[in-house]
Amino acid sequence: MAATVSPTIRTFQVSPDVPTALLPLAEMAQNLWWVWNPDAVELFRRLDRKLWSEVYHNPVKLLGVLPQARLAEAATDDGYRAHLSRVYASFRQHMDQKGWYQTAHADTQMLVAYFSAEFGLHESLPIYSGGLGILAGDHLKSAAEIALPLVGVGLLYRNGYFQQYLSADGWQQESYPELDFYNLPVQPCTNTDGSPIHIRIDLPDNAVFCKVWKVNVGRIPLYLLDTNISENSPADRDITAKLYGTGTDLRIKQEIVLGIGGVRALEAMNVNVSVFHMNEGHAAFLALERIRTLLHNSPLTFDEARQQVMATNVFTTHTPVPAGIDMFQAETMIRFFKNFIPGLKLNEDGFLALGREDVTNAKQGFSMAVLAIRLADSANGVSWLHGDVSRHMWHNIWPAVPPDEVPIEHVTNGIHTRSWLAPDIQFVLERYLSDKWKSDPTDQSVWDDVVQIPDEELWRAHERCRERLVSWGRRTLHQQIARRGGGYDDLTAADQVLDPEALTIGFARRFASYKRGALLLRDPDRLKALLEDTKRPIQFVFAGKAHPADNEGKELIRAIVNFARQNPQVRRRMVFIENYDMNVARYLVQGVDVWLNTPKRGMEASGTSGMKAAANGVPNLSILDGWWVEGYAPDLGWAIGRGEEYKGDLTDKLESQQLYDLIEKQIIPEFYNRGVDNLPHEWIARMKACIGKLAPVFNTNRMVREYAEKFYIKSAKRGILLSDNGGQRGVALAHAKDRLRQRWGGVKIIGVHQSGNGHFKVGETMNVEALVDLPEIDPKEVSVQLYSGPISATGQVEKPGVTTMTLSREMAPNRYVFNGVLECTSSGRQGFAVRVVPGEADMATPFEPGLIAWN
Predict the structure, then answer these.
(1) What is the pTM of this model?
(2) Can you tell me the distance from the alpha carbon of 46 to that of 566, in angstroms, rounded to the nearest whole number?
(3) Range(s) within the chain of domains with CATH label 3.40.50.2000
């Protein structure tokens, strides 16, 4: 028998032959600017509407599979060429004009590198799983709009996140189709000689090489690393195969490639970054690589280098759920970093301490979030409530600091409004609002004119969105049933689901247990009665994926699907749409009448899907969690509960009853309360309030500007300050902190004396004198403070204020008297304490070293 011979495959690439007149079209296909410009989307759709749907809205693929005759026809179509000219002029204006940053901060030259494990830019590039990735994608889009100097860094997954489909009994199944990079808007980055840029990372057993690709997002470049190249072993080629790969070793490899590889990729391309932003802890290894690079051939110590690196690191935490934070065992960390640690000038214990909440507890695992917090001068949560939750969650890192003063701030998330706004709603806004709603959506005055929109015009635009959702939902459900071999009766039933005029409530998100996707099912008889009401019909559209390993989440999906199959009337009014992605999300947030959100309070960091709905005039029905704590008002939507907390199963029981009550007694009556013109004027007023009050606040243009002014610019200037003159100030600061740590044990507040008899009137003042021991510490190196405010029923200071005391005199060697004055501005029971904290001016926060002494 002849031996089997494997053929040698020689690759080559074929590109579409685009006529000269259409070359601007090919240029725009390679830039995701078109994603948030409906006129540009229509330009591609006009070429072949059916094919546009088949290629899943991918313009690069569209141009590659269109018949050459169709391209030639479009090139000679005067109407099409005029459309192309108009869109291309807008594109060039976006690429070339100055933006907010150049106007507001022309004096600050910087470049931010935004690292994220996923980026949700468009459904045709599925390298995202959910809210974290879509937020990252919207971050880039808004950075492009305001011309913020920023680059993105991530991974290019060849299988992306899983595609979801349901079995006949409603159990979630997963598939991982291969992405064709050469038919996507990604281009390989090359050296000056045209060769591809490859970077090397050393793992325990071998070296891994990464290819670097680029995606253009308007004027923002996104660099993506890919290990699927011939230089790597089959196992290493799979490092970037799937988003959030399973198994500890694969996860840590992905995060090494993202963090360490991302920094090396930027260096290889000579991209000189001023500020590094870690979007969640997945990218935290970048801080270690930056320190190692600074220490290479340098006399600096780890702490000296760390000080300079910290100054220009920003960390955003997105999850209040401990299970959502990557944690590695000590043995795993040592195995992967054994050869890396010497370059940090640390021993193994010192290295592991960087990732432990309690540095003295050798049994604790290595947390990526703790590593990021310890190596960033700026950290934040993603809503006001999440900031508060995060300060309590990470309080153990600063155990002596009151939770309210733990140095974790917040920047409330937003959405890139133009990416999520229905074209019908955009058309209405363009007629009645200034163009500034697009160029500066943060300007509240522009949105005030929403009230001028005629009720009938806004309602008809929304009805078209609902009709489009129903039509698409029927087609999609028909396809789902056909794929799993459904019979004629099932297919016929799918063609009749949903009512284009019925009150439609949408629920779409990741199916994790804390999001309580099945809260609506707690009283099935009550829900069934709602669904069977023919006089005031109501219907629900569900979508969402459970993590492949989350069987509890999969059970929630199956419960919803099986409940919907109870009888024809229920089946028609309760639909689950498979494979939740950005395309599905757009149909839902634009087409439903109410957006439902039911997380356990304190566990939803932000929840941007509700913002997307609100921008389209869709009111929220939600637990007071995440962004809804800040966004809720009675004229904007409905709050389930008032933030109460109960024990055990009581929370689900009570909140499900409140949910039914709100739907039955408030939402249904208001929706069906029609005037003589058959318009729900009260409901339309609520829609206008949603758009006019929420859209200008909960958008990523505001969010990115806030990051720039709260963190980026400050970090860039701080980095320059600490690195000037060979990093002298950074070195001095590191030494000052080390000196304080060594001597802090001797800092004591010996005595406190206050004036008066403990009774004061509003407007009077109280003098406080503190005697403080500072052995071998200059009083200028500390700040002695009065920590004061109203006293709660439990004896704690509420809403504390801080007053700095002044040095009065030296009583004896190393013993000093400090004086302070408290103003009695309000009546009631008040209290104060005296404390000593570091006072070094160059510190990002006095609490960063974790040193504090109380009386």
Answers:
(1) 0.95
(2) 42
(3) 100-410, 417-698
